[in-house]
Q: What sequence folds into this?
């Protein structure tokens, strides 16, 4: 059975723009997925990336155009300048880790709900009520927001170390059990083709 390690950031608009495609591709190929939220700003600092606010204006303008185009292609609403971004992505990441430990079958729904809260609904995903609402929408007990916080914090930190060690430098980032790596939601077709044995 193929496996995908999915490194992502709750703050990333490109993670949000994956929509349900990660889960759809995994189901199509009978693959399992482990969701690994990371601190994207720390990842940039460790791997030579630059936070969006510090990029040259040319890169910032291109990013906004690309987000607009990708949003249209994905059929997902997206606010290019959300009211609560950037924010602290750790609390939502901790909830995702706790949810995966509780029931991994619904984690994709939670990741999508958190992405939509930030990028389509102008909600602050660092706030407890928003995280609890996202947990409920994904079919989890909202009390998971308070469960195993120390374990989740440790996992969040270890995800970053693992990401750096395995060649991750952005989000979303997908690594198969054969160490084939795919960066960006615009490489999901490539991941699909790889799992199908076409490339």
A:
């Amino acid at each position: 059975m193929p496996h995908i390690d999915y490194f992502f950031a709750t703050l990333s608009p490109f993670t949000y723009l994956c929509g349900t495609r990660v889960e759809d591709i995994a189901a199509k190929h009978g693959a399992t997925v482990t969701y690994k939220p990371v601190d994207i700003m720390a990842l940039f600092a460790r791997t030579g990336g630059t936070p969006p606010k510090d990029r040259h204006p040319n890169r910032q303008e291109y990013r906004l155009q690309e987000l607009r185009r990708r949003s249209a292609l994905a059929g997902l609403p997206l606010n290019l300048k959300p009211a609560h971004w950037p924010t602290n992505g750790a609390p939502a990441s901790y909830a995702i880790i706790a949810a995966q430990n509780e029931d991994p079958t619904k984690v994709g729904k939670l990741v999508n709900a958190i992405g939509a809260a930030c990028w389509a609904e102008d909600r602050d995903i660092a706030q407890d009520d928003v995280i609890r609402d996202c947990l409920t929408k994904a079919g989890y007990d909202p009390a998971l927001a308070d469960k195993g916080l120390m374990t989740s914090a440790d996992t969040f930190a270890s995800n970053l170390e693992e990401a750096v060690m395995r060649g991750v430098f952005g989000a979303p980032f997908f690594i198969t059990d054969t160490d084939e790596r795919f960066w960006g939601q615009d490489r999901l077709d490539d991941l699909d083709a790889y799992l199908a044995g076409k490339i």
